[in-house]
Amino acid sequence: MVIQSNVPALNTLNRLQKNNKNTASALERLSSGLRINKAADDAAGLSISEKMRAQIRGLNQAQRNIQDGISLVQTAEGGLAVIHDPHLQRLRELAVQSANDTLTHDDRHKIQEEIEQIKKAIDEIANNTEFNGIKLLNVPDSGTVTKTTEVMKSVTKTETTYVPEVVDLAKATSITIYEKSTSLNELTIPITSFPITLEWSPPDSPTEKYWFDIYQYAFQTTAYGPESGYTPGNNITGVRLNGLSGYDGVTEMWANKLLAYTGAGWEPSDAEGDHSPDAILGSDLSDYPKYTQGSNILLRFEYMRAVTTTTTVTVPELITIEESIDPKVILQVGANAGDTFGVDLSDVRVSSLGIDQIMVDPRDKAVEAIGKIDVAISKVSSERSKYGAYQNALEHIHNNVANYSLNLSSAESRIRDADMAKEMMEMTKSNILAQAAQAMLVQANQTPESVLQLLR
Question: Which among 75, 122, 134, 383 is least buried, having the fewest CB atoms inside 10 angstroms?
Fold first, then answer.
């Protein structure tokens, strides 16, 4: 006898756990009404059931699609019925009336006015008959239509701006200075050999004395005064750079920017002089600026450099496209791709019916109109028959789809739904076995107590 391992009790406990699990499964099926609640219940059955459910839901939606299609067909046929009668019938009646020679020209003119109103009414019906925004009676049989639409297009935009740039004097070979005391004096000095300070007296005014400085970006001149024994001069009329390089082909340039000055007034001018076709400093050669003792000017050369920037921008553009005209409405009448039904739409505008140009005056025109109206009536009758055939076909398809959905639902139910009577029986059995196992577990737990009899 052993007490460490109560094998009967362990066996009874295992059976009790299995019975409880079976009871729980039965309760789950009974509460949900489904035999398969999770993939572990029936993996293959779950896969089949879900595929069937997809078909069933697709078939149910297809039934609604078919009903919408039937409504579309009925709407189109209703519009055709109104065109048929009274409009076309009244047109024919008027044409027959006008073919009678008892009528005068004025009588036929009145009849023609009514005909025009009827034609206008037919076009209004054809253009306004629609289902959910879909035009039904003004769709040509085939061809293309041209439409203008707006699209966004990326374009490259190039802009050129001119930016002032200070000229580096070191990029010139020489500088020419124009001065007028009595006559026009000219002095050209190489840039490379230009001293720090250059003194100069004009040839016709040796008593005048002034000096020049050239900085990297500016030209400066200052006059000596009487205290130095000279007459104030500094009558500059123009300063020009020669032999420039690095400025887009510009080889010479005149000073055009006054940075600072003292003494008498000075202003740049666009007047032309004997020494240059370009701008000079001073209003003209006879009215040049005068500077007092110690006055100075500081000049700068500027060049307008072209700066080109390229950017990509998006701009709207109108384009003309051709779209194919599809006179067919496709209905999805099944659960799978390809389960479709096509409905050909119609064009019953007066131009399509061939009655847009009918006349009833004189009599022979009225007789001709009768024939054209007969053709139009025949076409509308044919279109109405077509839509009637569509409606009958769609109703047959609807009945078939409904029957298919019913049978598929029945098959899916046999796979997925629970048999309530069977599940009740399983739950009852599991409950009884669980109670019995509990009782036996009590008995098995009492067996080791017999060991105590050996100790007496």
Answer: 134
| Ramachandran angles phi, psi of 141, nearest 5° | -65, -40
Cβ neighbors of 130 (< 8 A, separation 6 or more) are 75, 136
Closest CA to 272 of 287, 284, 262, 263: 284
- Tens of each residue's pLDDT in the chain, 456 residues: 566 677 778 888 888 888 888 887 888 888 887 788 888 888 888 889 889 999 999 999 999 999 999 999 999 999 999 999 899 999 999 999 999 999 999 999 999 999 999 999 999 999 999 999 889 998 887 656 567 788 888 888 888 888 888 888 888 999 888 877 777 788 888 887 666 677 888 888 787 777 788 877 888 887 776 667 777 666 777 788 899 998 888 888 888 766 655 554 444 433 333 333 333 343 333 344 444 456 677 778 888 888 888 988 888 888 888 776 667 899 999 999 999 999 999 999 999 999 999 999 999 999 999 999 999 999 999 999 999 999 999 999 999 999 999 999 999 888 888 878 887 888 888 888 888 888 887 777 777 777 667 766
Kind of pairing, strands 302-324 and 328-332?
Answer: unpaired
What is the model's pTM? 0.54
Phi–psi pair at 102, nearest 5 degrees: -75, -10
Are 190 and 264 within 8 A, CB to CB? no
The rounded distance, in Å, linking the Cα atoms of 231 and 204 is: 13
292 vs 268: CA distance, rounded Å: 18
**What gap in Å lies between CA 110 and CA 343, rounded to an integer?**
40
Task: Quote the CATH superfamily of domain 52-138+327-413.
Answer: f41 fragment of flagellin, N-terminal domain (1.20.1330.10)
User: What is the rounded distance in angstroms from the CA atom of residue 449 to the CA atom of residue 262?
Assistant: 131
- What is the per-residue burial (b if ≥16 Cβ within 10 Å, else e) of 267-288? ebbeeebebeeebbbbeebeeb
